[in-house]
Amino acid sequence: MNMPLSAELIAEANTRDLEALEDDYASLGRKLERAGIAIDAIKERVADFSLAVPTWGAGRGGTRFAKFPIAGEPTNIHEKLEDCAVISQLSRLTPRVSPHFPWDKVSDYGALREEAASLGLGFDAVNSNTFQDQPGQAKSYATGSLSSTVAATRQQAVEHNVECIEIGRQLGSTDLTVWVGDGTNFPGQQDLARSLDRYLDAAAQVYAALPDDWRMLLEHKMFEPAFYSTVISDWGSSILAAQELGPKAKCLVDLGHHAPNVNIEQIVARLHRFGKLGGFHFNDSKYGDDDLDSGSINPHQLFLVFNELVEAELNPREGFNPNYMIDQSHNVTDPIESMLSSAETIGACFAKALLVDREALHMAQEANDTMMAFQALRRAYNVDVSPILAMARHENGGAIDMLGTYRESRWRDRKAQERKAVGLGAGIV
Ligand SMILES: [Mn+2]
């Protein structure tokens, strides 16, 4: 293994922080014990929890208006893998990377898989890209891809997705995430029914190319880049499409891709009820974006989502195994720092959901004791679980103080000396 940061640096920083952590962990352990919860059991669950980070998230994102790169930002898949390895080494929560094609194209995927493995990383879902044109591409996606009115454009989009499956097979992936920006800006621009028909027909051709053990994750998004209608705009369109395509098609919930104030935890419960919950893209949103760091605006919503996931785990349907990934646009922070902070927040919401007294919750629900049902959730949400996460990290070789240790490593400063300056590059989905 060729980990990017020195193990000694992490160990030294942890030595400094360990006494306080042990004190906090013991204190929280006593508090949880009074509620009949063994803290070590929760810690083991947290240690087993993992999520993927996207290769595109390792670079600074941007808005429609500008992108402001930082010195030392990664400019290719190899440098992105290095940065993802830093996040994984410090957090011990993100052992997988989700690549995006053609952005991450290389000539030898076997070698790329080995390179990632040497950094302690595996590959997660592969993401296709039919929302922008590439140099030399025969047909333009300007008016759509899988739902285009032009048969040859649909065919090109199908072939690209099939190529992504083939690349993913070589990388060890078993999921293809499909998000299309297809939609319209004007009433009347396209027929709303026929555009969905064309999408379903093309998506079925992609589905037919899936290996037996693969899933096709359909990511819906209400708007952007299209601002009047989007072909797969919401969870309703997504589950209908997934049901029509077949059992390997599942729905992917990006937290930022809903109408404002939508009850996302209920959507999660609904998708699970019909065996169609395939995965998550974690981020947060204040208005209509999908860009902010997970839990930075509404950590309670994230907790409620995990509460549904823990319920789902206790009542599994059709191989409940959601794919978890961070999908944020880091416009004003060092992306490594944002993803460390986000991984901690996501892990914390999972840990809090595990602390919910399910028996008390279910009894209160059955008895229509509204206040006690609410309090069962509230008690868990109010617990500061950070010592559990920090202890799980420490025991797995990660950093107790992730951001402090990262800054001490001067990783970004050192990379600013080694890496070539970033261009204005690709955006984010
Ligand atoms: Mn997404």
TrEMBL record:
GO terms for molecular function: isomerase activity; metal ion binding. It comes from Novosphingobium pentaromativorans US6-1. PANTHER family: L-RHAMNOSE ISOMERASE (PTHR30268:SF0). Residues 11-38 form a coiled coil. This is Xylose isomerase-like TIM barrel. Keywords: Coiled coil, Isomerase, Manganese, Metal-binding.
